[in-house]
Amino acid sequence: MGRVVFVEDDATIRKLVRVALRSTAHEVHFAANGREGLELVARVRPDVVFTDVAMPDMDGLQLADAMRARPDLAAIPIVIITASLQREQIQRYFAHGARTYLAKPFSTAQLREQVEKLVGTPR
Prior knowledge:
Blueprint: E1 3-7, H1 11-22, E2 27-31, H2 34-44, E3 48-52, H3 60-69, E4 78-82, H4 87-95, E5 100-103, H5 108-119
Parallel strand pairs: 1-2, 1-3, 3-4, 4-5
Helix pairs in contact: 1-5, 2-3
């Protein structure tokens, strides 16, 4: 069983993710913005973090930067969730330390595949 943190400001998407991952063996935690997400990541020490880019208070790239700046969190894989798939944007996500990205809208199968692929990834 792995631990997943999902940071997303849209309550509907959080609910869909909760339903999609309910049947897995993973422990899933949710935060509504990057600041809450950073506190949650520091407390839970997840195997992977999924984060939306555009959020109030602290966006997903700021969250990624904050995680990379902390040695205790720097190795945790980050998946950026985004509707923007322009090449420059994707390169920007990787420059901020993202391991990969998940395009919105995503299917439950795509989400589960990413979780399964990354939860077992050695740090």
